[in-house]
Design goal:
Blueprint lengths: L2 E10 L2 H14 L3 E8 L5 E10 L1 H13 L3 E7 L26 E2 L13 E5 L3 H12 L3 E6 L4 H8 L3 E4 H7 L2 E4 L3 H12 L8 E4 L3 H4 L10 E7 L3 H9 L6 E7 L5 H11 L7 E3 L2 H16 L1 H16 L4 H30 L2 H14 L2 H16 L1 H11 L3 H11 L2 H11 L5 H8 L17
Parallel strand pairs: 6-7, 6-9, 7-8, 9-10, 10-11, 12-13
Antiparallel strand pairs: 1-3, 1-4, 2-3, 5-13, 11-12
Helix pairs in contact: 3-8, 5-6, 10-11, 10-14, 11-12
This protein binds nicotinamide-adenine-dinucleotide and magnesium ion (MG).
Amino acid sequence: MTVARTLTVVMSSDLLTLSRACGLLRRRNLPVREFTVDSTGQPGFWQMSCAIDTDDATVESLLRQFQNVVGVRKATSSPPGPLSVPERGNATSSPGDAMSSSVRVYYEADTDRARLRDRVFAIIGYGSQGHAHAQNLRDSGARVLVGLRPGGASWKQAVVDGLEVRPVADAAQAADVIMILVPDPAQRAVYETAVAPALGVGKTLMFAHGFNIHFGEIVSPQGVDVSMIAPKSPGHLVRSEYQAGRGVPALVAIHQDASGNALPNALAYATGIGCARAGVLATTFAEETETDLFGEQAVLCGGVTALIQAGFETLTDAGYSPEMAYFECLHELKLIVDLIYRGGLGFMRHSISDTAEYGDLTRGDRVISPAVREEMRRLLADIRSGAFAKEWIAESRAGAPRFAELRRKAREHPIEQVGARLRAMMPWTEEGKRAKQKPASSKQPPPEREPARA
Ligand code: NAD
Ligand code: MG
């Protein structure tokens, strides 16, 4: 059925992107009744709108094609086509916007970059997150000190990266804003010995994860602001997206607002590390901590790895080759996840065969059975009661012997052996590239990758 539709495409403000988007319309030879290009209120973006009379299927395929155009950020239709997501607004004009009505999203235009200028930022720790926050803030014009243990491995790296490095206590003393980016189980000791003595009225204590504040491991003194900017991405992407002129989304939460400016100051930090370019969602320390732990345990890390291994074992136990099992249960996961990432479950289902989709819709619930859901609720209960936190802190304090043993066992799983062999045969993977450069006999263990925390 043909209906009047307005298509809206948000794109980077350059003529090449505009011409690519227009090319799509022109190739379809659609009767365009009205056509405008306007600013979006966000620097760096234009909004192209056009009114056309067309049917559902054409709109759906046009929206998909627009979304594939380099430089296009979003394509929607009004009334909505099957793929449309609600328009993303600007937090000042439409709080809450695209998601649930209670979630507020801040963008760069909602933040005050000037707040970066007259304050000194101490980044404590120079690992996955630390190296990205320190360099992004510095490149955004802020004065940055890195606080580390003298002689630690990352000290040299921070110096090589052109940063001013000091012992933790010195950096904390000299700073107005102290961001704690050492591993969660180490934070309490670092805080008590080197950070707490430096805190005073007017200073800000920041975190990228709510664990220690939420579970009461760190108790902040009155008079200081305590806030969180938690990038929803591993640190190396926080850095590389910033360098590419983009950013990764983040969460913002305020635990203590002594100055009355904790939120604008935290949002300025988000702009400094590039996250406000992608969107900063408002949350609380409790919500961030509990959902983060649940997500990584039940779905992203624990759930997915156990699902992959169980599928692999089911096939190999039944006599199928490990290579086939690896491809079906692990390798193809990326292709599916890429589709889900781009357009949600519906978009993925649209792209797979009807046979796959029917199997998905009739069998998925048998894998994630009521018993599995019950177990998920138990995981969540352990997170909320603090039982998981207590266990993890005790394990860390004891030198993490069980953790080391579990890591060792995980490395020995047959899926890891067959995977290493297969990836070495794929020329586009890191391992494949290395295998090509080396004589066949020289075997090397896989490199230590950056821990991609969820
Ligand atoms: P990491 O393990 O990558 O880095 C730790 C850094 O702290 C290293 O530079 C290390 O040398 C230093 N360090 C360790 N112990 C120290 C000590 N006692 N004194 C001084 N420095 C010490 O840590 P990370 O993954 O970047 O995590 C930092 C924070 O960011 C955590 O709160 C984590 O939950 C949060 N976070 C991490 C990610 C991620 O993807 N890695 C994502 C979001 C939030
Ligand atoms: Mg997470």
